[in-house]
Amino acid sequence: xxxxxxxxxxxxxxxxxxxxxxxxxxxxxxxxxxxxxxxxxxxxxxxxxxxxxxxxxxxxxxxxxxxxxxxxxxxxxxxxxxxxxxxxxxxxxxxxxx
Length: 98
Fold this sequence. Notes:
Blueprint: H1 2-22, H2 29-39, H3 41-44, H4 68-71, H5 76-85
Helix pairs in contact: 1-2, 1-5
């Protein structure tokens, strides 16, 4: 269980590091974590398992960011686009904010 938590935390940090690098800014893990909690955690959960408090009321279950089999297949650009543009811009839920 600890391994999954650390993997999820690493994914979150890496995603936000990539976000910072792509925008030309230096990455800040603490700010990335805070942004994840602000924008993503309500649906994806504090640890990224898709079990946030708002998840139960959504028509589609949020993605489990700790699912290595799925997440490892994503390209950095795909992750960046979802974060930067929001779900609707990449063919996912329009409820997912940028």
